[in-house]
Design brief:
The protein is mainly alpha-helical. The protein has helices spanning about 15-25, 30-35, 40-50, 70-80, 85-90, 95-105, 115-120, and strands at about 135, 140. The chain has seven helices and two strands, in the order αααααααββ. It has a two-stranded antiparallel sheet with strand order 1-2.
Amino acid sequence: MSEPTRYTHKPLRMDDREIVSMYLSGVDADSVGYRAGCSAGTVLKIVRAAGHQPRGRGGVKTLLAGNLPPAELVRLYETGLSIDKVASRAGCSVHAVRKALIAAGTRIRPPGEQQFRKAKLGSNPRKFTRRPQSDADGSTTDS
């Protein structure tokens, strides 16, 4: 019995048949690679070696986002979680989450924006509401 072809120096979490099957079912190479513990390029090499033609860039594909639908990924992200934390909860790659958010039309925050807002506003964003002005005689007026 011959040794299986090595595509990467590290052991894969899935066998070649599972990788090919997942890719052919429509899941993108990045997500398959994340689950298998390898790169998207390695996934495509395995698909080619199995005698299949990889899809072209931008082709029809399904983002593998664990068991969470894209609407749930958007909801988690919009509650303030980072893409990394959303990916961790969904059990998929950061790349897959980012693609799903962009496809849903979600504005991607610049890195560190959420931490900046928390540091500036604290846990209560209404903390810095306008206070009533006080007059010279000590009475307050709302302007």
